[in-house]
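pls design
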């Protein structure tokens, strides 16, 4: 994240805290200015109970285009018994930075606590995502172990890698339960879990096409057993007389 964007976001919130609405309005993108903007800024200012104890950036991202960029920043303000999240969107065009979005959200707990991995207050969406992740993991491990135990020459190493390949991604936000589908995606292994410093845990589940293909084709991969040579049965010995 550009440090000047973070400084601009913090400065705008400080102006809001001190009710300097005219200075904030001067920095707003012309596309979001309207006659009600000062009333909205005054309402957001009322959310601040006192001077914050601490301020930190808990989320940030930059989208760059050919002739512009957009920075999304979330600042967390901690007070004695509450927190505030300030969401600021900064648009940069032709070297000029403007505020394209500004929102204040009061919270009862810190951003980190809201996004910790817990089973409390989770619904069908989160549990469905977890069940899907466990199912794909179990299927992949089963196919991988089965492949290790089989004997079919050098092709085994190709299949061991192929089994771990997944395509088409489903991402489950553990905090919100939101599902996001990405059709063009490739990953090894097919199930991952990750989170940013303060952000939500994200389950990423890929279709285990390699494991499924191996399980369907495994019978044709094993070399056919060679038939044992047949030994003619010994008949009764011929008697000879002198």
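designed seq:
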């Amino acid at each position: 994240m550009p440090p000047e964007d973070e400084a601009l976001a913090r400065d705008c919130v400080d102006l809001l805290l001190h009710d300097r609405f005219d200075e904030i309005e001067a920095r707003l993108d012309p596309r979001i200015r309207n006659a009600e903007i000062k009333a909205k800024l005054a309402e957001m200012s009322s959310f601040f109970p006192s001077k914050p104890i601490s301020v930190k950036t808990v989320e940030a991202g930059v989208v760059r285009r050919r002739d512009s960029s957009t920075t999304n920043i979330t600042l967390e303000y901690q007070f004695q018994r509450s927190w505030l999240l300030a969401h600021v969107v900064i648009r940069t065009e032709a070297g000029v930075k403007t505020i394209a979005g500004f929102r204040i959200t009061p919270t009862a707990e810190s951003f980190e606590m809201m996004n910790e991995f817990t089973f409390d207050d989770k619904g069908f969406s989160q549990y469905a995502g977890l069940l899907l992740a466990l199912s794909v993991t179990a299927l992949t491990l089963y196919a991988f172990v089965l492949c290790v135990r089989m004997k079919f020459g050098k092709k085994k190493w190709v299949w061991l890698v192929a089994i771990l390949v997944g395509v088409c991604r489903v991402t489950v936000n553990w905090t919100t339960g939101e599902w996001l589908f990405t059709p063009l995606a490739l990953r090894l292994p097919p199930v991952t879990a990750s989170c940013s410093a303060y952000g939500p845990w994200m389950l990423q589940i890929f279709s285990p096409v390699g494991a499924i293909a191996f399980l369907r084709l495994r019978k044709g991969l094993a070399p056919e057993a060679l038939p044992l040579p047949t030994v003619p049965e010994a008949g009764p010995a011929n008697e000879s007389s002198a």
